[in-house]
């Protein structure tokens, strides 16, 4: 009986075209690193984004004056690191409305949603994330209320 059930399951998966490469999700166990190119109004920036479970780390690489500035979002705990200084803050008060927080909140909100295109809402308004079908990670983020547009590529 077990062999028959396994055979039916294998045939069903084969016929449905399901393969690990096609799974599109930002689940809490996903670990990935992205290079983000963002524009918020007239300000352009680049950053490395690391998603490790529910922890999201954003480290600026451009503009040069922000190179190395790091934001770590872990639930309600936010950490900012820069040139040897470190500030930790609960409830993220010092990080409100910063570009990295808007990105992190959008990614965190989308973690349990599974689709090629994810539309959601945070305290910063509606957002749209498109998922790259070949990698299963975000390729774009748009937050109209913040005039924020980002493109992502795997690091």
SS summary, helix count: 2
Number of strands: 10
Strand fraction equals over 45%
CA-CA gap between termini: 46 Å
Average pLDDT taken over every residue: 76
Strand neighbour order, sheet with most strands: 6-5-4-3-2-1-10-9-8-7
Low-confidence stretches: 1-29
Q: Can you tell me the overall shape?
A: globular
Question: Would you write up a description of this structure?
Answer:
With 155 residues, the chain is of the alpha+beta class. The protein contains two helices and ten strands, in the order αββββββαββββ. Strands 6-5-4-3-2-1-10-9-8-7 form a ten-stranded antiparallel sheet, with helices on one face. A hairpin with a 2-residue loop joins β7 and β8 (125-131). The chain is globular, with a radius of gyration of 18 Å.
Q: TL;DR?
A:
This protein has 155 residues and is α+β, with helices and mostly antiparallel strands. The protein has 2 helices and 10 strands, in the order αββββββαββββ.
List keywords for this structure.
alpha+beta, globular, 155 residues, 46% strand, ten-stranded antiparallel sheet, 2 helices, 17% helix, 10 strands
Strands, helices and their partners?
Layout: H1 2-16, E1 31-40, E2 43-52, E3 55-62, E4 70-74, E5 77-82, E6 85-90, H2 99-109, E7 117-122, E8 125-131, E9 138-143, E10 148-154
């Amino acid at each position: 009986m077990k062999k028959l059930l396994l055979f039916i399951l294998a045939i069903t998966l084969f016929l449905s075209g399901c393969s690990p490469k096609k799974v599109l999700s930002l689940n809490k166990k996903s670990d990935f690193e992205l290079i983000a190119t963002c524009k918020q109004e007239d300000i352009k920036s680049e950053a490395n984004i690391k998603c490790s479970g529910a922890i999201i780390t954003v480290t600026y690489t451009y503009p040069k004056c922000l190179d190395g500035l790091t934001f770590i979002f872990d639930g309600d705990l936010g950490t900012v690191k820069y040139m040897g200084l470190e500030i930790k803050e609960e409830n993220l008060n010092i990080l409100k409305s910063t570009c990295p927080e808007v990105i992190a909140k959008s990614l965190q909100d989308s973690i349990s949603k599974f689709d090629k295109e994810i539309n959601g809402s945070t305290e910063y308004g509606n957002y749209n994330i498109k998922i790259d079908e070949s990698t299963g990670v975000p390729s774009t983020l748009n937050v109209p209320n913040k005039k924020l547009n980002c493109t992502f590529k795997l690091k």
